[in-house]
Amino acid sequence: SDKKQTQQCFLQTFNDLYNNNRQIIITADRPPKDMALLSKRIAEETVEAKWDGKDTNFRLSDGLVFSLGRF
Question: Which residues form the Chromosomal replication initiator protein DnaA ATPAse domain (predicted)?
Fold first, then answer.
């Protein structure tokens, strides 16, 4: 089916970027653990960021800085 092919294409692209140490940002309306599309390995490599309604900067443990706000 088209959905399965899309998922396979996404996972291949994700793996190619990940294996080449590229930064990957995925936005969604639910946390990674609740997304059936993501494999367990991908979900384990992600962090959940929540927006509190204010313009906010915060630092993750690996030193990556996220800036959340309205765009």
Answer: 2-43
Beta strands in the chain (DSSP E): 56-59, 65-68
**Rounded distance between C-alpha atoms, residue 15 and residue 42, angstroms:** 9
Q: What is the Cα–Cα distance from 29 to 20, expressed in whole angstroms?
A: 27
How confident is the model over 2-17, as pLDDT tens digits?
Answer: 877 887 888 888 888 8
Tell me the two tokens of residue 46: 């992600």
List the chain domain ranges: 2-68
pTM of the model: 0.53
